[in-house]
Amino acid sequence: MNVTITVNGEKTSHEVEDRTLLVHHLRDAVGLTATNIGCDTSTCGSCTVLLNGESVKSCTVLAAQVDGDEIQTLEGLTGEDGEMDAVQNAFQQKHALQCGFCTPGMVMAATSLLRENPDPTEDEIRMALKGNLCRCTGYHNIVQAILTAAEDAR
């Protein structure tokens, strides 16, 4: 079937098999590889993107399901001038990454959280990230980065 979606503000249209997962569509057809494939079982969250502004694990969504919808990936957070957004900057400043594999999903989950709750507590951040795993156990710095991004936005 033909799927037309707006990805990071640009309309794309591709033929997809009806069983194609959104994560594979974004990586293979659209060419945006920041969305990682970590587990294919929705356990790790490294494939997290924003679907119509809501945080979703793109390994649990079929590309055909998002026909006509808007997707934002990590690449879409960066400004046209190449400047990182507040969450990306905070992750860099607070050293909120180690191997970096979970980082795209963590940043997207954090972005979603801060859009819904611009002043979260540490507990609210930890709750919002519970579906995203960091195998390097960098959670402390990730939480600090999100608190910093929230503070900088105020």
Quick tags:
154 residues; Ubiquitin-like (UB roll); DNA polymerase, domain 1; 2 domains; five-stranded mixed beta sheet; 5 helices; 5 strands; globular
Can you walk me through this structure?
This protein is α+β, with helices and mostly antiparallel strands and 154 residues long. It folds into two domains: 2-77, Roll (Ubiquitin-like (UB roll)); 86-153, DNA polymerase, domain 1 (Orthogonal Bundle), CATH 1.10.150.120. Helices cover 34% and strands 15% of the residues. It is built from five helices and five strands. The chain has helices at residues 22-29, 86-93, 103-116, 122-128, 139-153, and strands spanning 2-7, 10-15, 48-51, 54-57, 70-72. It has a five-stranded mixed β-sheet, with helices on one face. β3 and β4 (54-57) form a beta hairpin.
Structural class: alpha+beta
What is the chains' assembly state? single chain
Count of separate structural domains: 2
CATH superfamily of the largest domain: Beta-grasp domain
Name of the CATH first level of the largest domain: Alpha Beta
Q: For the CA atoms, what is the radius of gyration?
A: 15 Å
Beta-strand content bin: 5-15%
Quote the distance from N terminus to C terminus. Answer: 44 Å
Helix-residue proportion: 25-40%
Number of helices: 5
| Mass-distribution shape | globular
Spatial strand order of the main sheet: 2-1-5-3-4
- Count of DSSP E strands? 5
The biggest sheet amounts to: 5 strands, mixed
Second-tier CATH architecture of the largest domain: Roll
